[in-house]
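Morning!

This is the sequence you dropped in the shared folder:
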Amino acid sequence: MNIRWHSPDFKNKKEPFKWFHSDHFLSPNVFKRLQAEFPQAGYHQSHREEGDGKYYSTWDLLAIDDGIPVPETWNNLTTAWKAMLKVILSDDYRHYFSTLMERDLSKTRLHVRFTIYHENCWLAPHCDRPDKILTQTLYFPTGSIEGGELLILGSSEPDDIKEAVAPSPNRSVILLPSPNSWHSVRKVTPGSQHARRALLLHYVCPDNL
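The structure's back. Tokens below.
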């Protein structure tokens, strides 16, 4: 399967911090196949509501760890998804975002996971760790979701919402972590007929750099 991104035309947002979004990241035919074959099994629930750090309730499936495909996940992916992840691992993909976002990703290590936010899943306000140089989210829902918006925040206050980005099909969002890049994910409403399904990429700087 020939995977390529579809001249995504990322919009550069500068407030309240620098971030980007595109409403048509993949070509329509590629997106539809990946959407239909989005993995459903093997997820682990991640839940944290106390202690230090960020709080969340999500379901996650690790696909690439430290730039290496995870065998337990890889072996259960369809041909289309294996092709997609090979593209994501390619030097061309990394170079594309390095150039577009003006960030050096050459020495970063890539972590990729599938995520599903079922009803009552959420992510509290936080800034990504400073070792995360760039994060990309690609959305693969099968229908309209009640809740689940990415909330761009002006501060750590959950109601300080500057923009709400719905997890629409084929949408992609890029965040460039910084000390003021506060964001969260609104809780998926109980009874929502569809889940928030996404692929999440983190380009991480190794500890020894």
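Headline: The chain has a mean pLDDT of 92.

More detail when I'm at my desk.
O.
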